[in-house]
UniProtKB/TrEMBL annotation:
Protein task: Catalyzes the synthesis of GMP from XMP.
Keywords of this entry: ATP-binding, GMP biosynthesis, Ligase, Nucleotide-binding, Purine biosynthesis
Lipid biosynthesis among keywords: no
Molecular function GO terms recorded: ATP binding; GMP synthase activity
Species this chain originates from: Halorubrum vacuolatum (Natronobacterium vacuolatum)
A Pfam family assignment: NAD_synthase
Recorded GO CC terms: cytosol
Pathway in which this enzyme or protein is active: Purine metabolism; GMP biosynthesis; GMP from XMP (L-Gln route): step 1/1
Residues bound to ATP: 29-35
Protein's name in the database: GMP synthase [glutamine-hydrolyzing] subunit B
Length: 305
């Protein structure tokens, strides 16, 4: 475990040394990793850091408002409404790695605009240790690791939390005084809801996944899962009122883990599962059924794509 105060002092000094008098940008995702990286970088270089939050249309419910609030102390915060552009790019894309690629490219495009505008030479990223291991092992391409450096013409990349595990990042977040909603937030994948929608990502499927994730997070709070969410698998037949409908199948997943590299499906009581089912099917007339995923990692992954 890291000694947080020492870590913070050293990280701030390292960022100052790396960036000097130049300007930097960082992508905020709403997650704890990028929030910590941004806060450290802001301590180091103040408003010469431009935090960029891109609303891809694949974010958690209420995320954009929370970001504005949490980082209201950073005058340089940019919120970019890019939902339409992302859905356009994702139209017809069904392969999971292709999705990550398309989203990664979308991010680059949005960033380049801001980076150019604010004359940024450096990119700060919230990459953590398990992200690097998985990317190196090529288990999948993390869009926040692969891709960006080669394409964007930055003088350097600064990754202040690159050697930390998730639980260590949370400790640093607490020590930095970030709100609980940030420090205790469960991990959310870089490509967002796109990896919780099997097949093509459409605004409708993303909306179903977003609402399901919200319900699952709320209902399972007391279980303190490492990660819990709802995912859209496809369509199946159901009955609503007097009619047979062809509606969405939502998978509920809750796992215990330390770093996401392995995970155990969590045991959830029947009453809680039924409440989740009833809320998800009740709130959306296009959802026909809800299933619970009992598979550990391995052999499954945590996300669906
Ligand atoms: P999997 O699904 O591979 O997920 O078992 C392990 C952890 O990584 C997150 N994840 C991602 N994070 N970019 C990210 O930044 C990605 O492309 C990505 N895919 C999965 C996932 O949420 C889990 O915490």
């Amino acid at each position: 475990m890291v000694e947080t105060d020492t870590f913070i002092d050293e990280a701030v000094a390292e960022i100052e040394a790396a960036i000097g008098d130049a300007n930097a940008v960082i992508a905020l995702s709403g997650g704890v990793d990028s929030s910590v990286a941004a806060t450290l970088a802001h301590r180091a270089i103040g408003d010469r850091l431009t935090p960029v939050y891109v609303d891809t249309g694949l974010m958690r419910k209420g995320e954009t408002d929370e970001i504005r609030e949490t980082f209201s102390f950073m005058d340089s915060l940019r919120v970019i409404e890019a939902q339409d552009r992302f859905f356009e790019r994702l139209a017809g894309v069904t392969d999971p790695e292709e999705k990550r690629h398309v989203i990664g490219e979308g991010f680059i495009a949005e960033f380049e605009d801001v980076a150019r505008e604010v004359d940024a030479d450096y990119l700060v990223q919230g990459t953590i240790y398990p992200d690097r291991i998985e990317s190196e092992g090529n288990i999948k391409s993390h869009h926040n690791v692969g891709g960006l450096p080669e394409v964007v013409d930055f003088e350097g990349i600064v990754e202040p939390v690159r050697d930390l595990y998730k639980d260590e990042v949370r400790e640093v977040a607490r020590a930095l005084g970030l709100e609980e909603v940030v420090s205790e937030r469960m991990p959310f994948p870089g490509p967002g809801l796109a990896v919780r929608v099997v097949g093509e990502v459409t605004p409708e499927k993303a909306a179903v996944a977003r609402e399901a994730c919200h319900v699952v997070e709320e209902e399972l709070e007391e279980y303190e899962p490492w990660q819990a969410f709802g995912a859209v698998l496809g369509k199946a037949t159901g009955v609503k009122g007097d009619n047979r409908v062809h509606g969405w199948v939502v998978a509920v997943r809750a796992v215990e883990s330390r770093d996401g590299m392995t995970a155990r499906a969590q045991e959830i009581d029947w009453g809680t599962l039924q409440r989740i089912q009833s809320r998800i099917t009740g709130e959306n007339e296009n959802v026909a059924r809800v299933v619970y995923d009992v598979t550990h990692k391995p052999p499954a992954t945590i996300e669906y794509e």
